[in-house]
Every structure is written in C-alpha cells, then in structure tokens.
Amino acid sequence: MWCKTSTAGKGKVPFTVLTQERIDSLTRDKQQVLGEGASCRVLLVEVDGAPCCLKVAKEKRLKRLFQKEFDILLELNGAAGAPLALGTSFGFPALLTSFCGKSTFCELSRVASGDKEKFSAFLSLVKDVQQLHTFRYTHNDIKENNVVVRRDPDGRLQVSLIDYGMAKPFGTKLKYAGNDRHNPSRHPWMAPELKSGGACQPPVDMYSLGFVLKNLLATCEARYPSLEVLAATAMSPDPADRPSVAKMAKSMREYTVQDKKTKKSVFGKILRFFSFRK
Q1: How many helices (H) and strands (E) does the chain have?
Q2: How far apart are the C-alpha atoms of 73 and 58, rounded to whole Å?
Q3: Half-sphere exposure of residue 47, counting CA atoms within 13 Å on the CB side?
Q4: What does the pLDDT read at residue 181?
Q5: pTM for the whole thing?
Q6: What is the DSSP string of 96-113?
Q7: 9, 104, 161, 264: which could join 81 in a potential S-S bond, CB 3.0 to 4.6 Å?
Q8: Predicted confidence band of residue 258 (pLDDT cuts 50, 70, 90)
Q9: CA 159, CA 142: separation in Å to the nearest integer?
C-alpha cells in the first residue's frame, strides 16, 4: 500500500512512503533497468499511469545515504534540472523520483541536430549547476550518464542533471572509496582534490564540467580551439585556476547565439535588398 504524507515547506511536492510490499511490487513489474552499479539499481516503473524512477539499494547500510539524497531532492524541488522527489522508504533504502528520460549525454550526438544544439544542451547543464550552487550544494558526480537529455514536443532539447547520491553541502568532505585516489584513470571526471579528501566547493563541479565539455568537443563536426582551452582550463589541477560557472556559461552562450545573430544579419540584408528594389 501507499502511505502519503505532506511536506512542510510551501510549494514542495507531496511525497509517498514506500512500503517493502510496494517496493517488491514495483521491482517485479518494472518496465526497464535504467542503470545498475555496485551499490544500487535504477528501474523504470509506472506509478498511477506515469513513468517514474525507482532507485533501490543493494545493502541496507546505505539507508542514511539514500535519505540524504531524498532530502536534497526535496529541497531542490525540481530546481537545477533535478528530478522531483516522489517517494522514500523508511525501511530498506529506496527512492522514487520523476522520470527525466532515457537518453543521456552519452547519446547526445544522436539526439542533437548539430554542434550548436550540443552546445545549447551543455549550456543548459552549466546553468543547472549554477543554480545548484545557489543552494550551496556541489553535485560531485557530473558525467555523461548522469545528464539526461530529451526533446520536448515543441522540438527543444531539455536537460536534467540526475543522481544526487554524492551531492554535498559546501565545505563538507566526500568519503572517496578507493586506494588509487591519486590515479587519474579512476573516475577521471572527478576533481583530484575531491578524491584526496578536500572540501566540496564549486571548483570540483567545474572540473567535471570541463571533462564533459572535452568529451563533447570530440564528437563535434568542427574544431573549436577556444572551447578546447576552456575545457582544459576547467580541468586544471589547481582549483584556483578553473573558471567560475558564470564565466563558463558566458563563454558557451557565445556559441549558442552565433547562429541567431547570423540569421538576423542575413534577414536584415534580404529586407534591405527588397526595399531597395521597391
């Protein structure tokens, strides 16, 4: 059964307490396994006729971690492109969220119509991270398969930053599991200071954005030297050398509005041509 409760904050989304019986039922009737890692499985399920994501832990010891992720999603309430928190369990750790889409940045080349649209999608991601930082959280795990992209009925690409399991408030430290924390080949999207026990601050997410941008540029039809420099600078070993999220957004915006400016210029020339002929 479902046991519905209301949240205290105004404008927050009501959430549902998942019983073990309901978790088992949703798991059994799942539509698809969206992802699976060492600690959890993410399933596409249907609730009241709507697609949702059910994240189920593989170990009960992760209960506190799941509750923290639920609390962050509840606070964001859809901001920063985050999925909506819809349900949680106070028994075995499980989390129910809104479904943002099946395609991720791993498939961006297939979803986007060209380089400009790829840059528009990346700019949306940068803006999401910028908004997340206004809540004084770092995501700490920004990579291609944690960025969902979908095309709305109006034709526009929408971007959602998902998986807030490693998100932390500014100033806290992330417990990085692994003996090879200084090995750049392990979790290459993560900032080196994060893996060595440093505090969570905005530059750690900038490093990850640089990693995503670098990989995105490798799929582009043309070369963009200034963006290559931007990606490399964002991945600087020294956090102080990395650009701010606002600066990265400004740089990307130049590449997404270029076509609009060109179209306006061409359109203006056409109008002047016909005006002259009259």
Answers
A1: 9, 11
A2: 21
A3: 22
A4: 52
A5: 0.85
A6: EEE---S-BGGGHHHHSS
A7: 161
A8: low
A9: 13
* Domain limits, the chain: 10-98, 105-259
Cα 222 off chain centre by: 25
Determine contact, residues 136/170, Cβ cutoff 8 Å. yes
User: 113 versus 175: which is more confidently predicted?
Assistant: 113
User: 177, exposed or middle or buried, with CB in 10 Å at 0-12, 13-18, 19+?
Assistant: exposed
Q: Which two tokens stand for residue 208?
A: 């990850």
Dihedral sign of CA atoms 65, 70, 74, 79 in order: positive
Tokens of residue 264, six digits: 């306006």
Identify the DSSP state of 199: B
Dihedrals φ, ψ of 13, to 5°? Answer: -85, 130
93 pLDDT more than 90: yes
Query: In CATH, which superfamily holds the domain spanning 105-259?
Result: Transferase(Phosphotransferase) domain 1 (1.10.510.10)
Residue 85's identity, in one-letter code, is A
The radius of gyration computed from the CA coordinates of the chain, to the nearest angstrom, equals: 21
Assigned token pair, 159: 């971007």
Strand segments, DSSP code E, in the chain are: 2-5, 15-18, 32-36, 40-47, 50-57, 85-88, 94-98, 137-138, 147-151, 157-161, 168-169
Residue 53 near residue 26, CB atoms below 8 Å: no
- φ, ψ of residue 59 in degrees (nearest 5): -135, 145
Q: Class assignment of domain 10-98? A: alpha beta
Query: Could you give the CA distance from residue 239 to residue 252 in angstroms, rounded to a whole number?
Result: 20
Name the one residue in this structure whose structure tokens are 């399991």.
165
192 vs 171: CA distance, rounded Å: 16
Query: Contact 122/252 with Cβ under 8 angstroms?
Result: yes
User: Which pair of tokens denotes residue 71?
Assistant: 């609390």
C-alpha distance from residue 53 to each of 28, 45, 236 (Å): 14, 6, 35
